[in-house]
Design goal:
Distance between the termini of chain B: 28 Å
Largest sheet of chain A: 7 strands, mixed
Strand order of the largest sheet of chain A: 1-7-6-5-4-2-3
Largest interface: A-B, 41 and 33 residues
Structural class of chain B: alpha/beta
Strand order of the largest sheet of chain B: 2-1-3-4
Order of helices and strands of chain B: EHEHEHEH
Oligomer: heterodimer
Strand content of chain A: 5-15%
Number of helices of chain B: 4
Number of domains of chain B: 1
Radius of gyration of chain A: 22 Å
CATH class of chain B: Alpha Beta
Helix content of chain A: 40-55%
Helix content of chain B: 25-40%
Strand content of chain B: 15-25%
Distance between the termini of chain A: 54 Å
Number of strands of chain B: 4
Number of strands of chain A: 7
Shape of chain A: globular
Chain lengths: 367, 140
């Protein structure tokens, strides 16, 4: 059995909670990590839940994500704890988690990955504002393209909105979430779980493929525009300087990035903690030097380190205090790097990282 | 064109290309003085930051010389360099650096004349390109 339809009676979050509750109650998993509201804010945060009665606040369909939760999932799966943990993630989070597994920063051995078909996330502030207009935003979002237009630039240009490499996928396209949502098993593990929680097999709704195709086409156009505009805005050294001119070297983008994988970043070490002699020498050489130094160096180094693995989640833009559209240029550079190395992050946990495969001459000619 | 003398950073591995440079020197094979030679134990230890820093600090060209594939003293350092260079070149070319400003070449220890020829060629090529885009920009 691979597809099941869940009746939602106007409350898709409740339907998902009942599935997660089923997994916990039947002891198929020991704990579930899922986005859930805290008692203090409507902004859902990843929560690790082991008591089925404590799942009421789970809201994985809310169109918001305070950060890319791959990091939290990777901490939870840092080594095999002997417990079975289900993690409910967006597709960009799953892809980042797969990249971290390749770097041996986590293991997916005993995990159950549940992916959500994602129509995007709003910035936290936009989400909280919109919530004032529409208290039942999670439903309204999936029923109105008006709200869907409020998602981030990165989400609007995302082609990978369907979860892959997961055990179970929560399907929304082609469904009216007020009436039903889909649950699809993509692996043997997923199929046995679906059976174990008593789901009955069903056909996906007729309009599903067409709805996915429409979304994909719209996203393709947005992505083409994003890549073109980012290229136009950064195509020379002067333009790149203008683009990052208000960067404060706060490194929030690095912290928010789920695939900036170094345990210790070189930009936090003495390598870039220049003594006065170095700063004065640089000033003397060029006449004037901006402080803090190495802003361009930072962004280019980050591109060189992680652009092969960039999952285009857009969180670097979301956290920028100077409102620089960091993600746009990173998504553009990542597209070029990934095309060069014929690599797609998160596609397959067994696919090696490009920089670790250097003995074929296909894409790089000496000279 | 006459006033412009490009600054060229040349990173070479100790075992092959540096030895070739040494041979070129002892053989009295002259090559342009634009070249600033940096000796490393292996091209495999060239961090992408070395290349980026050279460019951002005003190098007009970066040349990396290593052992022929199969001859690396550390088995495959040169192949690692090849992969990294391909990645960095793809990045810098998107910000206005001509890809020809970054060149990787295999030059074996006995190839003194090859070293001379490569230096002459590269300096000529970079001279033809003109000053690096960094010359017009304050790099933040």
């Amino acid at each position: 059995m691979t597809y099941a339809v869940l009746k939602t009676d106007g409350n898709p979050q409740a339907a998902i909670r009942s599935v997660l509750r089923g997994l916990l109650s039947a002891k198929l998993v020991d704990a579930v990590m899922v986005a859930a509201r805290t008692p203090y804010s409507a902004l859902p945060m990843p929560a690790l839940c082991s008591d089925p009665a404590k799942l009421e606040a789970a809201d994985p369909l809310a169109p918001v994500a305070p950060f890319n939760a791959a990091r939290q999932a990777a901490s939870l799966l840092r080594h095999d704890s002997g417990r079975r943990v289900a993690v409910v993630l967006r597709p960009c989070e799953v892809r980042a988690l797969v990249e971290l597994a390749k770097l041996r920063q986590c293991t997916l051995e005993n995990s159950i990955l549940i992916g959500i078909e994602c129509l995007g996330r709003m910035e936290n502030s936009v989400y909280l504002e919109t919530l004032k207009e529409v208290p039942d935003l999670t439903i309204a979002f999936y029923q109105s393209s008006g709200y869907q237009d409020r998602v981030t630039t990165a989400c609007q240009a995302c082609l990978a909105f369907q979860p892959a490499t997961v055990d179970l996928a929560i399907r929304l396209l082609g469904h009216d979430p007020a009436d039903s949502i889909g649950l699809e098993a993509l692996t043997d593990k997923g199929r046995s779980l679906l059976g174990a929680i008593g789901m009955t097999p069903a056909q996906p709704p007729d309009g599903r493929e067409a709805a996915a195709a429409v979304t994909l086409e719209r996203r393709r156009q947005r992505r083409a525009a994003l890549l073109r505009d980012a290229g136009d805005q950064t195509g020379s050294m002067v333009k790149l300087q203008e683009y990052f001119a208000t960067c404060l070297n706060c490194y929030n983008c690095r912290v928010a990035c789920p695939v900036c994988y170094c345990k210790e970043c070189v930009f936090g070490t003495d390598v870039f903690a220049h003594p006065p002699e170095v700063l004065l020498r640089r000033a003397a050489k060029r006449g004037v030097v901006k402080l803090p130094t190495d802003t361009t160096m930072f962004h280019l180094t980050r591109m060189a380190h992680m652009s092969h693995a960039c999952v285009a989640c857009g969180h670097c833009t979301s956290v920028c205090p100077s409102h620089i559209p960091v993600a746009d240029v990173f998504i553009k550079v990542a597209a070029e790097t990934q095309a060069l190395f014929h690599y797609e992050p998160g596609r397959d946990v067994n696919e090696p990282i490009p920089l670790l495969v250097f003995e074929d001459e296909r894409e790089e000619k000496a000279g | 064109m006459s006033a412009y003398e490009p600054k060229i950073i040349v990173m070479v591995c100790n075992w092959c290309t540096y030895t070739a440079a040494d041979l070129a020197g002892t053989s009295r094979l002259a090559y342009p003085a634009n070249v600033r030679l940096v000796r490393l134990m292996c091209t495999g230890m060239i961090d992408v930051k070395y290349i980026l820093k050279a460019f951002l600090d005003g190098a007009d060209g970066v040349f990396i010389g290593g052992c022929h594939p199969g001859d690396c003293h550390y088995l495959n350092g040169n192949l690692k360099a090849r992969k990294r260079v391909a990645g960095v070149r793809k990045i810098v070319e998107q910000f206005g650096f001509e890809p020809e400003r970054l060149r990787l070449q295999w030059i074996g220890a006995s190839e003194g004349p090859e070293f001379q020829k490569n230096m002459t060629d590269f300096v000529e090529a970079v001279t033809a390109l003109g000053p690096s885009p960094v010359h017009d920009a304050m790099v933040l």
